[in-house]
Fold Sel1 repeat-containing protein.
Amino acid sequence: MTVLQFDGVIHRHVKQNACEVESLLRRGLDAASGKAGACDLIEAHKWFNLAAMRGSTQAVRYRREVSQEMSNTEIAEAQRAARDWLSVH
């Protein structure tokens, strides 16, 4: 396990298979683009955060981009959602 820090947040990095990381990244892209309806930056940030924690450098960049359009409250909500997802998966 590796400990990484992104945007001031410490993450435990666990190497995952490429398909899982790609799936998390794709979910973030779908949420950011509104593929399933309206654009949801909170959901996008959550998925990008999870993919970044698994080593996706693309996800780090996308998460940074969407966070520039979000309030601190929205970012905190996205981070909570990512932690909740991790507690189940």
User: Anything to note?
Assistant: The chain has a mean pLDDT of 86. The chain has four helices and two strands. The two ends are 17 Å apart (CA to CA). The chain has one domain: 2-88.
